[in-house]
Amino acid sequence: MASLSLRNIKKAYGNNAPVIEGLNLEVGKGEFVVFVGPSGCGKSTLLRMIAGLEDITGGDLLIEGERANELHPSERGIAMVFQSYALYPHMTVGENMGFALRLSGMDKRAIKEAVGRAAEVLRITHLLDRKPAALSGGQRQRVAIGRAIVRQPKVFLFDEPLSNLDASLRVQMRIELARLHRELGTTMVYVTHDQVEAMTLGDRIAVFNAGKLEQVGPPIQLYREPRSTFVAGFLGSPKMNFLDVETAGAVAGNLQLKLGGNQSLDFGRTPVGTLPSQLTLGIRPEHVRVVPAAAGLQARVDMVENLGDTQLVHTALAGSEASFSIRMAPDAISPRVGDVVGIHIDSANALLFDRTGRALELA
Amino acid sequence: MESVLSPAASSTAPRRRKRFQSWKWAPYIFISPFVIIFAIFGAFPLIFSATLSFAQWDPAAGFGAIKWIQLDNYKFVLTDRWFWKSLGNTVYIALASGLPQHLVAIPFAAFLSTLLRGRNIVLGAYFLPFITSSVAISLIFSSLFSKDFGAINAILMSLHDHLPLIGQLLPDHKVDWLQNTEMVKPTVSFVVFWRYVGWNTVLYLAAMQTIPEDLYEAATLDGASITRQFWHITLPMIRPMMFFAVSLTLINNLQLFEEPFILLGDNGGTGQAAMTTAMYMYRTAFYFSDFGTACAISWVMFVIIAVLSYGNNRLFKLAGGED
Ligand SMILES: Nc1ncnc2c1ncn2[C@@H]1O[C@H](COP(=O)(O)OP(=O)(O)OP(=O)(O)O)[C@@H](O)[C@H]1O
Ligand SMILES: [Mg+2]
Pick from A54, A359, B186, B228: CA 20 to 30 A from residue B162's CA? Predict the structure, then answer.
């Protein structure tokens, strides 16, 4: 049985155009699902609807098979960790974590035990008597998570929980969250803007675009086989390169593509079904190689960035001004700015999209 | 030594000094209006009244008539029946008007903070008495509370006659709100309460609006009902404002003067039932021309207010677990 089922969920504020429309998603028991998408696409709104902080305009929300649309937030068996932590400033860490249990009328000893256990899992036992003001950002985040754990919810909801932390702490907390998920085995729904968090934490990633679910699937599947240019461009940094191309006929399963600046490309494969004349070719920076100028597509080098573990070469293809990036090994001899180089596209890893952005299946 | 000074040095020195000085004095000139006004209307009366409290002086007889009598004024004040009576009146009215002010303003502000529209109109209506002249307020209430022609008695009488059950609890005769010794203090307290409840509501509402919304959301998820949220989130979060508002009420109510003075006249009503200490001090100075004693009363009041404010401070710190 699914832990969380969203069936045709809709949300509109007042009489405005709906923010979320006709959304369907099933989250399995113990699964870790990450929501990603551009700012304002409705991720937080959806999370808040699941939590019960926002009314559901239409559709059904099922938690462990039971309709929960009208259930009070505290009766849904969910716990939420806010981006701002939302710790009660006048209560100690221990009181913060035990607040829900206290309200439910549990006796003091049992509360203390439950809080102590959660504190141990999160390694904050020594902080239990402090007020939130006396904690660092990372510690506050732990307390916020601890407050959620203590209630033993069926589903954890996280809304960008790590975005207020500095980079190194974020990495550390990310690893701890993964550990926590392994140990607790509870269903988790996690909103983030961070690619790495999405790729590493999620069993599945759900990509949102303007209130609609664009694609759901395991991280690697989304990365390798995006169903649209939106998903392809959203995951991966630097972004996937997109080239507008025209088909110049296919010979024995080998598609010929025409690019700007009178260049042409032997694509090697061909799409299944009818062949549109206008296409978009997508290729990730790591699947492009720099070759001698005569041996590939002509491109001018605009900038070279050395990130230490990798080098990024930003170029402009002849006949186009769009930026085209290439990832190179850190020790490779990189071209210099202004050089004209050749580019080899590894078509085994390239994708083709029609002009509406939908991916074409390749033979 | 004069001959050592070179002509060049002596000719540049005065010019430089002049420029330097105007620059040096400018800041003092800019702050002087405040300093002068404070010195005349703040510091001087403070020091003069402190000095006078150790003297006997009838201002009509001029400065030469000041007679030093050490602590006699204080001894007199502390054994004066009328001083203690006025202090009793003051404390009665301060509590009877001050406590309800806060007990009403806090829940009322909490209610207003949930209103999506019309909040400012309601708030404005309640705030209006605070910015209205106390003379106008006292005149209106004099007529409302008037025994024979006042609206309040008229309403009470008609409710007594026509309202079933509870109507019987209301008085069957006209109440002499402003003359009856029993009624004077509650009446004055009510007017003071009415006047300042809006002010306190504004303070509390301002404090409540700074509480982050996500605390309430977290509490909702934790299973806190609206009343529990009020107890466990709102009240602790407005504690600093409560301290501030209660301190202001304490200081203002213990110096209460205008409302009883205009409502009841300078003697504080029948049997001086609502003569506050501030009024007594005023009478001592301007009716009995005993400025020394009046100054002593004001300094005793100062000590009382200071002690109570400190106590208030400790109380709030203790209640908040000292942070
Ligand atoms: N109370 C509201 N009234 C009207 N519109 C709202 C309200 N709250 C949010 N919205 C709109 O709903 C849309 C989705 O907002 P939401 O906060 O869910 O975005 P998000 O995906 O979480 O963005 P971000 O990544 O920036 O957090 C936005 O266009 C926003 O303007
Ligand atoms: Mg958001």
Answer: B186
Domains belonging to chain A, first-starting first, are 4-234 (3.40.50.300), 241-354 (2.40.50.140)
Q: State how beta strands A187-191 and A155-159 pair.
A: parallel
CA A306, A238, A361: angle at the middle one, nearest 5? 140
CA count, 13 A, side-chain hemisphere, B102: 18
Question: Which DSSP category does B163 fall into?
Answer: S
> Contact A86/B217, CB-based, under 8 Å?
yes
Q: What confidence tier does B6 reach under pLDDT thresholds 50, 70, 90?
A: very low
Strand order in the sheet with A78-81: A78-81, A155-159, A187-191, A32-36, A204-209, A212-217
In chain B, what are the domain boundaries? 27-70, 73-319
Chain A nearest CA to B216, separation (Å): 9
Strand pairing report for A297-306 and A340-345? antiparallel
Which of A53, A93, A158 to mutate against chain B (most B CBs within 10 Å)? Answer: A53
Q: How far lies A356's CA from each of A41, A242, A279, in Å?
A: 20, 13, 9
- Distance from C-alpha of A182 to C-alpha of A178, rounded to nearest angstrom: 6
A194-237 confidence digits (pLDDT tens) = 888 999 999 999 999 999 999 999 999 999 999 999 999 999 88
pLDDT tens sequence across A155-165: 999 999 998 88
What residues of A are in the B interface, CB distance below 8 Å?
51-53, 73-74, 78-80, 82, 84, 86-90, 99-100, 103-104, 131, 133, 147, 151
DSSP state of B170: S
User: Would you state the pLDDT for residue B19?
Assistant: 59
Ligand 1 close to Cβ of residue A36 (< 6 A): no
pLDDT at B323 over 60: no
Domain B73-319 has CATH 1.10.3720.10: yes
Q: Which of B213, B214, B222 to mutate to test the interface with A (most CBs of A within 10 A)?
A: B222
Ligand 1 pocket test: which of A10, A43, A195, A208 has the largest number of ligand atoms within 8 Å of its C-beta?
A: A43
| Contact status of B211 with chain A (Cβ, < 8 Å) | no
Which residue from A73, A87, A131 is facing B220, i.e. has the nearest CB?
A73
**pTM of this structure:** 0.83
Atom number, ligand 1, closest to the C-alpha of residue A41: 21
